C-alpha cells in the first residue's frame, strides 16, 4: 500500500474518540479521515470517504457497532475492513461482531502498540483477536462441540500436521509474520498452508477456519 492507511473512527464517547484519534495520528502511517459518534454515522462515513479500515466501537446509539459492521461489509465495491475496538468481551458481543464481518476484535485496554499493530495486520488481510477474545471463542466452541457430541456427524477433514500447527497459532492470535518466525517458514508458505486448510474446512477466512476446526475437535 502506498500512502497512509485511511481510517474512520467510530465511538460515541468524545473523549475516548479523541484519544484514539490522537494515537492514530501520532503513528505516522495512519490517517483519520472521519469520526463517527454512532453506527449510522459510521456507515455514512464509510460510504463517503471509502477508508481502508473502520475502527468500530460496539455499543453506540441509533445503530450498534455489529449492525453497522454488517452494513459496511455488505456495501458494493471494495468494502473497508472493520476492526472492533471495545471494552466488551462477552460471547454475545464477540460472536455478533465476527458474524457481522469484522476482521478483528481488540479491547480498549490493550497496549497502544498492540492496537496499532492490529490495525496494520487487518488492513494487510489478516484477522486479529485479543488473547482473551480468542480464549472466549475456544471455550464457546468447545462447549457447543461437547453438547453435540452425541449426534452422528461425518469425520472431520484430514488436515496435515503443519496445517494444524499454523491454525493453532492463528487461534492464539498470531499474525502471518509471527507464525513464519515461530515455525521457521516463509510467509508465502504460511499463506499456502492456510489456503489448504481453508479449502479442506470449507471456509474463506482465518476466524471461520479456527472456529470450524474447534467445532470439529481438531484444535
TrEMBL record:
Residues 6-123 form the Response regulatory domain. It comes from Agromyces intestinalis. InterPro entries: CheY-like_superfamily (IPR011006), NreC/VraR/RcsB-like_REC (IPR058245), Sig_transdc_resp-reg_C-effctor (IPR016032), Sig_transdc_resp-reg_receiver (IPR001789), Tscrpt_reg_LuxR_C (IPR000792), WalR-like (IPR039420). This is Response regulator transcription factor. One of its GO terms (molecular function) is DNA binding. The modification 4-aspartylphosphate is found at residue 57. Residues 152-217 form the HTH luxR-type domain. It comes from the Bacteria. GO terms for biological process: phosphorelay signal transduction system; regulation of DNA-templated transcription. Keywords: DNA-binding, Phosphoprotein, Transcription, Transcription regulation. It holds the Pfam family Response_reg.
